[in-house]
C-alpha cells in the first residue's frame, strides 16, 4: 500500500535514483551527464502522475450528510468530514451550486478559513482530524400551492433529511432506506422528495350538560378521531391520528385543575398548563406514539344527565379570539 511522503534522490555509483516516500524507485538517472536533467524531469513527472493525483482524490471522506428543512422551507446542510492529514487544504463539492452562510470548524470547534466558487468549497484544514461543514443550500422549491419539493444529488453517500414537524411525504423518487417520524434516510445519488406541512386548525367539541353547552377547543394539526367527556373519572379523552402537539382550551366550570395528562397505557405525558383565567385553562400536550390523550382534573361539573356532541361549529368565546388568531406561535 502506498504511503504518501516526499520523494528524494539517492546517489548510487554514477546514477541518481529518484525514490518516493515508500521507497519505491521511480527512475535512475546518470550522474553529471547531459541526460541527467532530462531524466530528473521525467522522474518528477512520473512521481506526480503515479502518486500525487491519487492523493488529491483521496483527500476527504464524507462520513455523513444531513439536510435540515426549516418550517419556512429553508435547507441547512451539515457534512461531517474526515480530511487527509497529508494535505493542508481540502475541496468539497456541495449538494447545490447556490449556497451561502458557510461555516467550517474542526474537532475542537475552531473556525477554519475557506473559499468557495459555485458548488466547490475549499477548506484550510491545517492538520484537523475532523471537519464539520455547514451551509445553506437552495434545494427547496414550491411545486404547487401547498407542496414543497427538495431536489439534490448526494453523490456516492447516503443522506438524511429532517423535515419540519407536521410534514407529510407525498412523493419520493427512490425507496428510502429508513423513515422515523420526520427523519428520512435516502440512498446515494439523486433525491427528489415532495412534502406538505399540515395546517393547525381549531376543532370545537360541545359538551351539553344540564341545559348548558360547554365548548372545549382543541388546537392541533392532527385529526381528532374520538372525543369524550367522562364525568365519573373527571376527564376528557381524545384520540388523534398523529403524535403532533395539541392545545386544549378547557372550561374550568366543566373540568377544573390542577390537571394530570396520561396516554393510552396510563403513562404520564409531557404537558404544560401555561395559562388560566376565570373561565378557561390552556393545556399544551405532547402525545406519545399511542396518540391517545386523557386530561384529568380535580373538580368537575355536578352529575346530571349527559349528552356529548362532537361539533365543528364555530362557537367561540370572545375572550379567546385574539389568542386563536395568534395560535401558530405556540408551535414554534
Shape: elongated
- The residue ranges in which pLDDT falls below 50 over 5 or more consecutive positions are 1-12, 18-28, 49-57, 305-332
Quick one: biggest sheet? 7 strands, mixed
Distance between the termini: 53 Å
- CA-based gyration radius: 32 Å
Q: On the 0-100 scale, what is the average pLDDT? A: 80
Share of residues in helices:
under 10%
Write down the CATH class of the largest domain: Mainly Beta
Structural class: mainly beta
CATH architecture of the largest domain, by name, is Sandwich
Helix tally equals 2
* Beta-strand content: over 45%
Task: Write down how many β-strands occur, each being a DSSP E stretch of 2 or more residues.
Answer: 29
CATH topology label of the largest domain: Immunoglobulin-like
Number of discrete domains: 3
Characterization of this structure:
- With 332 residues, this protein is mainly beta.
- The chain folds into three domains: 8-57; 61-197, Immunoglobulin-like (Sandwich), CATH 2.60.40; 201-331, no CATH class.
- It contains two helices and 29 strands.
- The protein has helices spanning 35-57, 321-325; strands at 8-12, 15-19, 25-30, 60-69, 75-83, 89-93, 99-106, 114-117, 120-124, 131-137, 140-144, 147-153, 159-162, 167-172, 178-180, 183-186, 190-197, 201-209, 212-220, 224-230, 235-240, 246-251, 255-256, 260-262, 270-276, 280-286, 292-296, 299-300, 306-310.
- Strands 7-10-5-4-13-16-15 form a seven-stranded mixed sheet, with no helix packed on it. Strands 25-26-22-19-18-29 form a six-stranded antiparallel sheet, with no helix packed on it. The protein has a four-stranded antiparallel sheet with strand order 11-12-17-14, with no helix packed on it.
- Strand 25 (270-276) and strand 26 (280-286) form a beta hairpin.
- The longest helix is centred in the first third of the chain and has 23 residues, at 35-57.
- The model is unreliable at 1-12, 18-28, 49-57 and 305-332 (pLDDT under 50).
Amino acid at each position: 500500500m502506498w504511503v504518501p511522503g516526499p520523494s528524494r534522490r539517492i546517489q548510487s555509483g554514477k546514477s541518481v535514483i529518484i525514490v518516493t516516500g515508500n521507497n519505491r524507485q521511480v527512475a535512475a538517472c546518470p550522474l553529471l551527464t547531459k541526460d541527467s536533467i532530462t531524466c530528473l524531469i521525467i522522474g518528477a513527472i512520473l512521481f506526480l502522475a503515479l502518486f500525487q493525483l491519487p492523493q488529491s482524490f483521496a483527500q476527504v471522506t464524507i462520513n455523513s450528510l444531513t439536510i435540515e428543512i426549516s418550517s419556512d422551507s429553508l435547507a441547512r446542510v451539515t457534512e461531517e468530514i474526515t480530511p487527509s492529514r497529508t494535505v493542508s487544504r481540502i475541496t468539497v463539492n456541495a449538494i447545490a451550486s447556490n449556497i451561502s452562510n458557510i461555516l467550517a470548524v474542526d474537532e475542537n470547534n475552531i473556525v477554519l478559513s475557506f473559499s468557495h466558487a459555485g458548488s466547490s468549497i475549499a477548506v484550510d484544514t491545517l492538520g484537523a482530524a475532523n471537519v464539520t461543514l455547514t451551509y445553506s443550500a437552495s434545494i427547496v422549491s414550491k411545486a404547487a400551492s401547498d407542496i414543497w419539493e427538495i431536489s439534490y444529488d448526494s453523490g456516492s453517500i447516503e443522506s438524511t433529511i429532517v423535515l419540519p414537524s407536521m410534514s407529510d411525504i407525498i412523493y419520493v423518487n427512490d425507496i428510502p432506506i429508513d423513515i422515523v417520524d420526520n427523519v428520512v434516510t435516502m440512498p446515494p445519488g439523486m433525491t427528489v422528495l415532495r412534502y406538505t406541512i399540515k395546517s393547525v386548525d381549531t376543532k370545537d367539541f360541545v359538551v351539553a350538560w344540564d341545559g348548558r353547552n360547554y365548548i372545549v377547543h382543541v388546537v392541533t394539526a392532527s385529526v381528532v378521531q374520538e372525543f369524550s367527556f367522562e364525568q365519573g373519572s373527571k376527564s376528557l379523552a381524545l384520540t388523534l391520528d398523529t403524535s403532533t402537539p395539541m392545545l386544549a382550551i378547557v372550561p374550568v366550570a366543566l373540568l377544573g385543575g390542577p390537571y394530570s395528562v396520561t396516554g393510552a397505557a396510563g403513562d404520564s405525558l409531557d404537558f404544560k398548563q401555561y395559562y388560566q383565567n376565570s373561565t378557561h385553562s390552556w393545556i399544551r400536550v405532547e402525545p406519545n406514539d399511542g396518540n391517545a390523550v386523557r386530561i384529568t382534573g380535580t373538580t368537575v361539573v355536578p352529575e346530571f344527565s349527559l349528552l356529548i356532541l362532537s361539533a365543528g361549529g364555530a362557537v367561540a368565546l370572545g375572550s379567546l379570539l385574539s389568542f386563536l388568531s395568534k395560535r401558530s406561535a405556540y408551535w414554534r
